[in-house]
């Protein structure tokens, strides 16, 4: 069974004043094995080295690449994503972060929550995203 996306939409329609193009949904009905990822930050998964200090777009790319790598290691695919929670430290980076994230979720339509926070674990981090995926049952 594939996941049922409830009221899928694109942010270019819901936020026409912003330069966004993200495929999201109001809800997702999923059955299967759940994969919970901790908040992914702009750092190399093997070395823990920070990536692209001061560059929200490059940091978001690394965060999304980490998410896809970990999903793969868990036996999940990008289309199994059901929820993303996005934390940014500066509202001015919102469009850049969401635009970049949107490249990785095109056609998937997960639910998403975005928060502006005072800081993340390292002062150089501008974005953190945690993800939940569900690997569908074969039934």
Walk me through this protein's architecture:
This protein is α+β, with helices and mostly antiparallel strands. The protein has one domain (4-136): 2-Layer Sandwich (60s Ribosomal Protein L30, Chain: A). The chain is 24% helix and 31% strand. It has 3 helices and 6 strands. It has helices at residues 11-14, 56-73, 94-104, and strands spanning 4-10, 23-29, 32-36, 81-88, 111-116, 127-136. A 4-stranded mixed β-sheet has the order 3-6-4-5, with helices on one face. Strand 4 (81-88), helix 3 (94-104) and strand 5 (111-116) form a beta-alpha-beta unit. Helix 2 (56-73) runs parallel beside helix 3. The longest helix is centred in the middle third of the chain and has 18 residues, at 56-73. The N and C termini lie close together (7 Å). The mean pLDDT is 94.
What is the structure about, briefly put?
The chain is α+β, with helices and mostly antiparallel strands and 139 residues long. The chain contains 3 helices and 6 strands; from the N terminus they run βαββαβαββ.
Question: Main traits of this protein?
Answer:
globular, 3 helices, 139 residues
By DSSP, the count of extended strands is 6
Distance between the termini: 7 Å
Q: CATH-wise, what's the superfamily?
A: RutC-like
Shape: globular
Radius of gyration, rounded? 15 Å
Report the CATH topology name: 60s Ribosomal Protein L30, Chain: A
Based on the structure given, which CATH architecture is correct?
2-Layer Sandwich
Low-confidence blocks of residues: none
What about the largest sheet? 4 strands, mixed
- Write down the domain tally: 1
How many helices in DSSP terms?
Answer: 3
Tell me the β content. 25-35%
Helical coverage, percent range: 10-25%
- Series of H and E elements: EHEEHEHEE
Q: Trace the largest sheet across and list its strands.
A: 3-6-4-5
Name the structural class: alpha+beta
Mean of pLDDT = 94
